[in-house]
């Protein structure tokens, strides 16, 4: 039973990682400190794609499935659960480009919001300094 739980945990973590990859930059608009976690997440996502690495969560899922006596998939998480389900099989690169564009838009919005907050803080500080003179 423990191996089956590990399979589920690996799948949930994988879905969570991909969801955070897609929306983490937008979450940083409200929680700016989380941008660092999103930069790391996006960096890992790009590294896995560019270097054709196997994600450790995929290895965990395969190991747990083998331990549970289940069939072990020869494809990765995205190929097995997303390709052909969320987007057509022949549009893998289109999906990657769209996801990349979503991330870039979120980061652009983050930078614009951060600059506006900083300018507002500077204006408040300048206003307070003028009051004390």
TrEMBL record:
Membrane-spanning segments: 6-28, 35-53, 93-114
The name this protein goes by in its record: DUF2784 domain-containing protein
Keywords: Membrane, Transmembrane, Transmembrane helix
Gene source species: Catenuloplanes nepalensis
InterPro entries: DUF2784 (IPR021218)
Xref: Pfam families: DUF2784
């Amino acid at each position: 039973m423990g191996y089956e739980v590990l399979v589920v945990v690996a799948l949930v973590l994988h879905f969570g990682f991909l969801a955070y990859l897609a929306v983490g930059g937008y979450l940083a608009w409200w929680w700016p400190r989380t941008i660092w976690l999103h930069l790391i997440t996006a960096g890992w996502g790009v590294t896995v794609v560019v270097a054709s690495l196997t994600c450790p969560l995929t290895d965990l899922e395969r190991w747990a499935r083998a331990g549970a006596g289940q069939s072990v998939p020869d494809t990765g998480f995205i190929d097995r659960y997303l390709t052909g389900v969320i987007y057509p099989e022949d549009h893998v690169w289109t999906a990657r480009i769209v996801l990349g564009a979503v991330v870039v838009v979120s980061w652009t919005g983050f930078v614009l919001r951060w600059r506006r907050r900083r300018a507002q803080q500077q204006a408040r500080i300048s206003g307070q300094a003028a009051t004390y003179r």
